[in-house]
Prior knowledge:
By secondary structure, this protein is of the alpha+beta class. Helix content is 39%, strand content 13%. α3 (28-39) packs antiparallel against α4 (43-53) and α5 (100-117) packs across α10.
Amino acid sequence: MPLEEALLDYTNLYVRFVADRRFDRDHPIWSAYLAGLREKVDPGDWTYHFYRSRPHHVQPASTIKTFGCFSYALGEPGQIRLHFHNADGHLQGPLSGERMPSRLSELASLVHHVRAQRETVKQVAGVSWLYNLTAYRRLFPESYIAEATVATNRFRNMPLWGQFLNRHGGVRKDAASLFVHRLYDQTSADDLARCFPLHPLAVSAPIDAFHEFYAQGSTIKFDR
């Protein structure tokens, strides 16, 4: 497989650089990146340099509204899609027990807003590697997580690649090393998804389940 094709179809670089999801191989920004890649001795250094030169779009362009670490975008008719980004500047991690009340408050506000402003929305959906983590799963009603399925063909998206970054933006070396080790053993592109330590999970539930869950308020336990 040509390198340029692999970078477009099997990494998140296009989205990071161009900030859209058209995946236009002739886009001027993408073309500029590839042109530099052909000229540079170290493709890793050039990729990092090019990334640093681009504006950093924290939230997808499709984002409708943000509530702290959470935001939502419109999905299929009658559905919103939930997104997470670490916007918490506290010393404790955004998914720590100490910060759980803040996360639950943000989600409760988001759900209240959607129910009030978008009455046609009946379903909440999400896709992320984070749904593998107990610290993240406990923020949602059980019905949202209960029938989680592995989301396939997500090579272009952060729901897959985000697992290699820690909350400070640095590389999680253990996860990266495991990925590289598994990658060396692959002989075709068919099983690339197996190289990732965690798979992105697709989840969904009625928005009423969220409303009922957050209405419990003080009955939710904030375990460390």
